[in-house]
Protein 1
Amino acid sequence: QVQLVESGGGVVQPGGSLRLSCAASGFTFSSYGMHWVRQAPGKGLEWVAFIRYDGSNKYYADSVKGRFTISRDNSKNTLYLQMNSLRAEDTAVYYCAKDHGIVLALDYWGQGTLVTVSS
Amino acid sequence: QSVLTQPPSVSAAPGQKVTISCSGSSSNIGNNYVSWYQQLPGTAPKLLIYDNNKRPSGIPDRFSGSKSGTSATLGITGLQTGDEADYYCGTWDSSLSALVFGGGTKLTVL
């Protein structure tokens, strides 16, 4: 069965950096695009970034462009999100999600990892 | 302010039917596939509908999706207390080159 397990969350000061990881299993990771989606406390879903199956194309929300970098290591079945210049408004639960592959839809989600940006 | 507009809340009695709307524009819903997600309290979102009206395996046929022009609708029949959750629509926005979600709709089963 598909499993996505995020890690790397924690408390970081404004202006700091953090790298999130998402370990994937139960499917051919190298054949699917992957997303990061976040949810601030008590708020709705906000898409963060998408990377194609081979890493050839990456897309970002305007709110994180230039500060966050999505990447993947298909040999390790792992997705990453490098987050720099963190702000208080980046505080959220960060989910990784698998793309459906045929149409744009997020068909499996991890349990999420909490990132708190605070001094 | 979300690119896709959903009602903040809807409610209905057990056994009844409810619909949740999602309004967008030609740059998103009008020219791209819509998906719907259910988020039960304290859990990760789950895909309910993709490609406007298709259900992943394991999703009961009480859940349905439709799209017309720049709007989409999620329908839920035979409401159960276990359906109480937040529901989100999502699609690609070609102008933004970004995936966009609606603001979410909280369903209460009275």
Protein 2
Amino acid sequence: GQNIDQPTEMTATEGAIVQINCTYQTSGFNGLFWYQQHAGEAPTFLSYNVLDGLEEKGRFSSFLSRSKGYSYLLLKELQMKDSASYLCAVIRGYNKLIFGAGTRLAVHP
Amino acid sequence: KAGVTQTPRYLIKTRGQQVTLSCSPISGHRSVSWYQQTPGQGLQFLFEYFSETQRNKGNFPGRFSGRQFSNSRSEMNVSTLELGDSALYLCASSQDREADTQYFGPGTRLTVL
């Protein structure tokens, strides 16, 4: 199966922490990516998880549990510029990314 | 290092016409993937090329085709355009490993009238 599920929309306050969840079907899993996409722009790479655990990169962290088919993206110290869509994608086979529908995050002052 | 470039950035066509989009990958990247993004279907994989060979293909009709040249530049072609082909077409490049980070170009916005 190809289902990748993530919440459609989230809102948060500037300076706060937000966690965006993603669940996926585990068959054929080769790794999981998170991308950020601002309106009208191309997706930009945030993180890549292939093994279980937490990957931290500045204000952004991503977690993966392969057995549970579950990942989350954690954004700390939210800034207004973090308002964007966050895309969870699973890679299957040769560079074939299967994307979730994306989570639109709105950061308010 | 320059990023992925795509030309043209915007394109308007009418139903029944065909269109060719171009993508130049990051220098040294040998894999090029194409995606279609629409509000209703989100980002969907079209196909992937490596060393001039299509290695992977998504679930799109045969009207969608592509190719890759020896310098890793890639083109995709859509024939007999339909209204539903209006979308943002994104190209992404990566190095030659099977599951590598893909870096996206700015996209080509295609409008079919």
